[in-house]
Inverse folding.
């Protein structure tokens, strides 16, 4: 049975329109008008227990709004959501025990106090007995390599340490479902890797379900076999990362090392040339013509080496977001 079930979910935000100037302010006060922003539109998906799913979309696509509905912070305008069999917006205590939301740009730890104090507050909120608190604290701080950092004020932690401490605070009650909104935002490469490793370990150890948004594709490729792609509020793809490339990157990149120079006028017969550097040529070749094109290249050109790659996922997603072309 799905641990997250989303059916025809929509969210419309009414936004007041205000013209500048005194007249605009008076009008705004006495005759307020609204326009509607459709942030999420008729989205449906199901996630099974233990899955790690990446939630992708350009800025403003509707990811955070969806996460807020899944965690019960806002009401849906339409549709149904069930998380661990609860309706999130009812915010029942038992539901809150089962989930956690971590937002990279927000923090729950108190700035001037050591993280340990905030953790104790969380333990009290979630009714975690002292013995279990100590066990979890030990286990999670070891997994996050944070042991020595919990007794110093949060403001004195590095960004990466702070993010790890935020994760510790979010996981102290051992939630079954973890919603992560940009958990590696602003972290350096090493800290990003540490957070990723931790999430992978946490997922494996506790069979936790994780829904993750990130603008760093490395997070998604390292952690998620499955991705959801949202565009202007609508879900346009739900499947594997490889499938995403197949659907949205119709060409593969063929890199050929030539043993002697070949004129460009001849090379153009084998595919779209992406770059020529010395005797190395990179082509874009459509997936359906790939095998015949490679056979032709090998038979007709002086090839010393040849490799075939998918274009980097960042490039594919970036192009997709930039052009808004989603229906090929
Ligand atoms: N409280 C709100 N009131 C009105 N409009 C909102 C509100 N929150 C979000 N929006 C709008 O809804 C749309 C979706 O926003 P959302 O924050 O869900 O996008 P996102 O995919 O998380 O983007 P990002 O990657 O930039 O965080 C945007 O057009 C945004 O301006």
């Amino acid at each position: 049975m799905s641990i997250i079930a989303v059916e025809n979910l929509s969210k419309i935000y009414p936004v007041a329109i205000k013209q500048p100037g005194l007249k605009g302010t008076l009008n705004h006060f006495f005759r307020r008008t609204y326009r509607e922003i459709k942030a999420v539109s008729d989205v449906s998906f199901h996630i099974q227990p233990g899955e790690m799913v990446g939630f992708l979309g350009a800025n403003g696509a509707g990811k955070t709004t969806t996460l807020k509905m899944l965690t019960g912070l806002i009401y849906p305008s339409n549709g149904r959501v069930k998380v661990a069999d609860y309706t999130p917006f009812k915010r029942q205590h038992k539901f809150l025990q089962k989930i956690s939301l971590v937002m990279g740009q927000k923090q729950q730890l108190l700035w001037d106090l050591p993280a340990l104090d905030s953790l104790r507050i969380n333990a009290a909120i979630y009714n975690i007995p002292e013995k279990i608190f100590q066990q979890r604290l030990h286990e999670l701080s070891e997994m996050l390599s944070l042991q020595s950092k919990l007794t110093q004020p949060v403001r004195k932690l590095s960004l990466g340490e702070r993010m790890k401490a935020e994760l510790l605070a979010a996981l102290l009650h051992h939630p079954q479902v973890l919603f992560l909104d940009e958990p590696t935002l602003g972290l350096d490469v090493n800290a990003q890797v540490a957070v990723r490793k931790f999430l992978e370990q946490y997922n494996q150890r506790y069979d936790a379900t994780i829904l993750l948004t990130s603008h760093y594709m490395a997070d998604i490729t390292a952690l998620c076999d499955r991705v959801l792609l949202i565009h202007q509020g609508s879900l346009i793809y739900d499947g594997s990362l490889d499938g995403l490339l197949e659907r949205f990157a119709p060409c593969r990149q063929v890199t050929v090392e030539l043993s002697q120079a070949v004129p460009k006028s001849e090379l153009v017969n084998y595919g779209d040339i992406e770059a020529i550097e010395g005797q190395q040529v990179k082509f874009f070749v459509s997936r359906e013509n790939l095998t015949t094109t490679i056979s032709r290249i090998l038979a007709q050109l002086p090839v010393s080496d040849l490799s075939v790659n998918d274009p980097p996922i960042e490039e594919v997603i970036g192009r997709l977001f930039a052009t808004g072309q989603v229906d090929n």
About this structure: The radius of gyration is 25 Å. The first helix runs from residue 21 to 30. Residues 13, 15, 37, 39, 57, 59-65 surround adenosine-5'-triphosphate (CB under 6 Å). The first strand starts at residue 4 and ends at 17.
